[in-house]
Amino acid sequence: MRPLKAIILIGGRQKGTRFRPLSLELPKPLFPVAGFPMIYHHIEACSKVPGLREILLIGNYQPSESIRQFINNTQREFKIQVRYLQEYTGLGTAGGIYHFRDQILAGNPEAFFVLNGDICGDLPLAEMYSFHVERSDGSQMTLLGAEATMQESLNYGCLVENAATHHVVHYVEKPSTFVSTKINCGAYICSPAILRDIAAVRRHHQDENFSGVNGDGSLRSIESISLERDVFPELASLDKLLVFYTEGFWSQIKSPGSTLYANRHYLKLYHKTHPNRLVKNGDGQATIIGDVYIHPTAEVHPSATIGPNVSIAQGVTVSPGVRIRESIILDNATLQDHCCILYSIVGWNSVVGPWSRVEGTPCDPNPNKPFAKLQSMPLFNNAGKLNPSITILGSDVQVPGEVIVLNSIVLPHKDLAGSFRNQIIL
Amino acid sequence: MKALILVGGYGTRLRPLTLSKPKPLVEFCNKPMMLHQVEALVKAGVTHVILAVSYRAELLEKAMRKQEDKLGIKITVSIEETPLGTAGPLALARELLTTDSDPFFVLNSDVICDFPFEEMLEFHRGHGRQGTIVVTKVEEPSKYGVVIYNGESGKIQEFVEKPTEFVSNKINAGLYIFSPQMLDRIELKPTSLEKEVFPHMAKEEDLYAFDLKGFWMDIGQPKDFLTGMGMFLKAIQQKNGAKLCHGPSIVGNVLVDPTAKIGADCRIGPNVTIGPGVVIDDGVCIKRSVILQDAHIRSHAWLHSCIIGWRSTVGQWARMEGVTVLGEDVEIKDELFVNGVKVLPHKSVTVSVPLPEIIM
């Protein structure tokens, strides 16, 4: 049997700005959700697909210690080859794949997965592969699809399907008017032949001296090719795009707020995949409510109450009488006595003083609507006011005792002098 | 000697507390507001206190019956059919006030200070005219009517309402002593002492000012109730510090009823009053607040500038601040943030209220 490969598109510095201030410290794909970097979950899912031998991370982050260490750790843990292929510039979701086609085709893989780094979910990779093998004639690509509400679908790639054959007959990325409630989840499996179609799109661009625009209206280079904007509409017209649906947990991770949603779902998934990662209540230990991940090196006082849906990273100190709910506490943060952390991310090495309250507003999908997805709200609303969101303390932020930091974003290395509400603190 | 206390109406400014109790019975520093005045009056030799009330309050009358026995004095509740302002009630109680020729005290019921009744009497007898009003220094006289008087004799020259430029920083403190002849100036109809009676008395050189030493506060609304509490505790600390609570979890001036229980790892104070039967669990921080009888503050809560009503419960990790007032028997659920909110009695608050609001 020929091997399988996987590509994880991790983007670059100029991407992931919506994820600031958290992405100021660490490439966004390495941000920990449920205790592990976002793309760790992808790699873990890939490692469970039989025959998948190699994972290529494609992006244009400068190689860094954090990336290098992450690769080493995951290679060792999953006994799978992981390599980082750095683009010289942002080449778009298809441009990077095309640029590194020789690396992808080395070893003659039968097919390769392509996963966007900023999605999360219970990705049914093996099922996608079986579906692809069954339905495809070896020249096609299968994308993972999901159902969204009419209004939300406009924020995603929308597709129209031939229900009998599961062919995508029409594809539009982020349409301005309603097209379909079927959306693209950003996970694909491709037959190698698909690279020829990407090459054709690229040639076409060059012939036309094409200068396209990005989603945000900025010009992009000739080299840049987008799977969603350039390739899928073409594949749809050639009957080369198939869709496989999932009803499992899936979401994009665009804004920091969506990490809490992803955190909650990955923790829930641990019941099935890694029950040992979830903390259990025990004598002389902190009170645990619901799903909680605590790194073994974190020190948690027995009088603290934690959960539901909390992840605590390594080296964190949780002092007596602390309450944490629906939050992510990053490496080496210190939460002092009686403080209360709700719907927040506490950054690396930050300190929250005694009796302080750090609180955000959840931005969960509407629970009353079927298929509702997480909405990544813009930072500011039409009135120019900050939309209430989760509270984020960047790295090395000092929150004094007895204050409240509500619905605020605090950039790294700040010493707060008092209480703050609905503010970005530079 | 006699004294008349101007209680007036429903005490709406101190709602929601006054929805459960007449204002004179609301505890200020663990003692009904009224009793601070009545006890000081008794000490100065007053044997008959008349409460001028413009509504019928059975609770108040019942409470006063009890105090009569306890203090060995007579307390009469004088009820106005229609509110008579600050002067009218004197006319209504004329017969009670003129049984002898002694001067009598008149007090605004919202005023708290170190009551100088004996000195007032001495001063009043010294100048021999119809009235003495107590004046106190304030920082921002422009908010009040100020009193202009002769610094040596105390004779009042005039009153200036809300002055636009500095003329004096002394204001009417709401404590008076009058000779019975003064009652001839008042008819039985709604009248204001301050606006309609005093200016005439001043013009006729019948009114003198007595300068109050020490603290003074009108505690008729929650914000000032808390400020006044801080002043009162400071005065206790200076006079008899042993009455205050001391201990490792106590910071500054804190008054705790002996029947209250305080848990471990708390930080209470400064300027906190804790009433009888109150239970404070472990790890609670309270500053500048009043916890009324039988309230329960659960673990790790943080309270600043709050009045917690009788039998109310504050949940774990709740944060309350900004002159939040809970009425009687209110419940604040765990982990909520409540800021500047007035909660009416018997309510359960289940979601955070980050901005000032009234919860019906």
TrEMBL record, chain A:
Q: Which InterPro entries match?
A: GMPPB_C, Mannose-1P_guanyltransferase, NTP_transferase_dom, Nucleotide-diphossugar_trans
Gene name?
LOC106805424
Q: Which domain of life is it from?
A: Eukaryota
Pfam families to which the protein is assigned, alphabetical: GMPPB_C, NTP_transferase
Q: What name appears for this protein in its UniProt entry?
A: Mannose-1-phosphate guanyltransferase alpha-A-like
Q: What residues does the Nucleotidyl transferase domain cover?
A: 5-206
Boundaries of every Mannose-1-phosphate guanyltransferase C-terminal domain copy: 288-425
The family this protein is said to belong to? Belongs to the transferase hexapeptide repeat family.
Automatic annotation (TrEMBL), chain B:
Occurrences of domain Nucleotidyl transferase (ranges)? 2-228
PROSITE patterns reported for this sequence: HEXAPEP_TRANSFERASES
Q: Does the keyword Nucleotide-binding apply?
A: yes
SUPFAM superfamilies tied to this protein: Nucleotide-diphospho-sugar transferases
Keyword presence, Ligase: no
Keyword annotations: GTP-binding, Nucleotide-binding, Transferase
Superkingdom: Eukaryota
Q: Provide the Mannose-1-phosphate guanyltransferase C-terminal domain boundaries.
A: 250-359
EC number in record: 2.7.7.13
Which pathway is this protein engaged in? Nucleotide-sugar biosynthesis; GDP-alpha-D-mannose biosynthesis; GDP-alpha-D-mannose from alpha-D-mannose 1-phosphate (GTP route): step 1/1
Q: Record's Pfam families?
A: GMPPB_C, NTP_transferase
Q: What general EC class does the enzyme of this chain belong to?
A: transferase
Q: Which PANTHER family match?
A: SUGAR-1-PHOSPHATE GUANYL TRANSFERASE
Similarity section: Belongs to the transferase hexapeptide repeat family.
Protein name per Swiss-Prot or TrEMBL: mannose-1-phosphate guanylyltransferase
Q: Which organism is it from?
A: Priapulus caudatus
What gene codes for this chain? LOC106813575
